[in-house]
Amino acid sequence: xxxxxxxxxxxxxxxxxxxxxxxxxxxxxxxxxxxxxxxxxxxxxxxxxxxxxxxxxxxxxxxxxxxxxxxxxxxxxxxxxxxxxxxxxxxxxxxxxxxxxxxxxxxxxxxxxxxxxxxxxxxxxxxxxxxxxxxxxxxxxxxxxxxxxxxxxxxxxxxxxxxxxxxxxxxxxxxxxxxxxxxxxxxxxxxxxxxxxxxxxxxxxxxxxxxxxxxxxxxxxxxxxxxxxxxxxxxxxxxxxxxxxxxxxxxxxx
Length: 254
Description:
The protein contains ten helices and eleven strands. By secondary structure, the chain is an alpha/beta fold.
């Protein structure tokens, strides 16, 4: 990846028409199979569609909501869909490794682990984290301790030993719970006191990348140390260079 200084970044005019992608384009790109992907909290497949559009091959996903999992299976019949709570997969001594095996992978071979833990506990429009023992409804299922799910993702990452990983969440995580965000990122960086990943986060807005929507999200990137060092990333600060510069001025729906 060739990095450009901020003042040389190519930002397209705001008046450029918005052209939605087509599913035919997504299928054509996905056929390249440039990199392997496993997605956690996959929903009906929004993030996975983006990876496929970028040439990725989504091998397996974990989604505990029955309706979302059913929609995902129907739209992606060739993908392994694990309809279980991620915590149940982790409690199984061989749960993660079995999922990788069904995806044709061994620990350390996965290119990209994607994760979108529920954001309701951190949303600025919600009530906040609150009592984690009280069951809350998510995707048609009752669940407790939702705010700790990012840590379950971190455990999953260390079990898969994926080369690169991304977690996204709402900006309220940084505003309402900055110490929690720091703990999440540190848990991604280290396992058993040993540095495993270089990781950092940044807030990005979809409107800066050609999407007619003001959607800001925290994006946390983690790169396995051996992979990072081969491309000159030798610190958490270096990870910030991987985040893309804005490519568009604001694009309106009109």
